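Appendix B, Record 12. Input sequence as logged:
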Amino acid sequence: MSQTFVGDTRVVTTSIKTSPSVVTQVKSIEKDGYWAVQIGFGDRKIKNTTKPLRGHLKGALKNEKTAPHFLKEIRYAKKPDLKVGDAVKVSEVFKKGDLVSVMGTSKGKGFAGVVKRWGFAGGPRTHGQSDRQRAPGSIGQGTDPGRVWKGKKMGGRMGTDQVTVKNLLVVSIDEEKGLMNVSGPIPGPTSGYVLVRKIGKGKLTDLIEEKKQVEVQKEPEEEKKEEAKSKEN
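Logged structural output:
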């Protein structure tokens, strides 16, 4: 994460690396029933891939040592103008001021109790309750239904969920480095994989905050002096 200025407003930004991205497969409506393009991102050693995957990526591999680490299919409404092996640049998809949504896997936080995980208030701190400060309390209803309902909010593993943050603005694009800066934070850890979708057009001026006008209170004597000067003029 970093920061930049839009006008006189300081805006918190997150840098997303978007390239190099390469087209690994093109699906057609005649053969597959719909138009789509599969894009590969990242690098991993070719020895860590399976032979069927190497055959699938044969036309898109630039060298025999590395292969794309992440594959994602994107559907099209009409025939795309891309071929296997073509590079996809960030400037061809996104522009400054676009509204985007970012989907990723949130950070894993391990086992968490109900207070941290769900915001429970906990038990009383008095009347002999020495060990119930962060306990969940009763979890059942008694004889009927005689069990705990599925989906009950209890302690458990927190994080590693699919999270989508919407309505972020593209603040800047660095085509040479393949970086895109968006306003605000995004889900997931550093160097985590995220999916960025364009959802509309926006304006960077929406990030500019209006400055509050501060009125200076003057003492009565100063006000009388100013009134006298204005009458003399």
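Residues 110-139+152-158 form one domain.
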